[in-house]
Amino acid sequence: MKTLNFASAAVSALSLLALIITSTASAQQSGIKRTDLQRYDLSVPGYETVQARIDFEAHTAFGKHSHPGEEVIYVLDGVLEYEVEGQSPVTLKAGEVLFIPAGVVHSARNNSHSKASELATYIVEKGKPVLVMKK
After folding, report:
1. How far apart are CA 111 and CA 38, in angstroms?
2. Tell me, what's the pLDDT at 17?
3. What 8-state DSSP symbol labels residue 112?
4. Which of 20, 60, 75, 123 could pair with 31 in a Cys bridge, judged by C-beta atoms 3.0 to 4.6 Å apart?
5. What CA–CA distance (Å, rounded) separates 122 from 134?
6. What does the alpha-carbon distance between residue 131 and residue 32 come to, in Å, rounded to a whole number?
7. What is the distance between the alpha carbons of residues 37 and 66, in angstroms, rounded to a whole number?
8. CA–CA separation, 56 and 76 (whole Å)
9. Cβ contact 58:115 at 8 Å
10. What confidence score (pLDDT) does residue 135 get?
């Protein structure tokens, strides 16, 4: 019985590890590096905040995706173009911000010859993936 419980726990752990690796791999796109900076529980039960730095090489794009919660973007360096579903594209330079409501499909692109970076702050329900790629 102990062997069966151990085997079941091992399979569960491996399944969870495969899910984490798959979701991390799908979140990474060529020429784009995501660095998770912090994750903290909020005072609102069941919610957390996640901050990440996203670095874009010249002429790269992060495809259409959404988040299960709000995203607040602050452009750190360079110039980035954002396409948010239902809105005209907007181009932001360092020091400018953008708010994206929960579940809204959007994408980001660096059209310049230089690197660009953003600080993304997500306010999301705990247990849900921070990022959902669209096909």
Report:
1. 28
2. 37
3. S
4. 60
5. 18
6. 15
7. 20
8. 11
9. yes
10. 80
Mean pLDDT of successive 10-residue stretches along the chain, which has 135 residues: 46 38 50 96 95 98 95 98 97 98 97 97 93 90
pTM for the predicted model, two decimal places: 0.77
Question: What is the CATH T-level fold of the domain 31-133, as seen in this structure?
Answer: Jelly Rolls (2.60.120)
Q: Is 25 left (phi over 0), alpha (psi -120 to 50) or beta?
A: alpha
User: CA triplet 83, 87, 93: central angle to 5 degrees?
Assistant: 50
> What are phi and psi for residue 114, nearest 5 degrees?
-120, 165
Cα Rg of the chain, angstroms: 17
- The Cα–Cα gap between 75 and 70 comes to 16
d(CA 20, CA 88): 34
* CB within 8 Å of 71: residues ≥ 6 apart: 99, 100, 120, 121, 122
d(CA 132, CA 71): 13
Q: Where do the domains of the chain lie? A: 1-30, 31-133
Q: Given this model, what pLDDT does residue 27 score?
A: 45
Q: What is the model's pLDDT at position 93?
A: 98
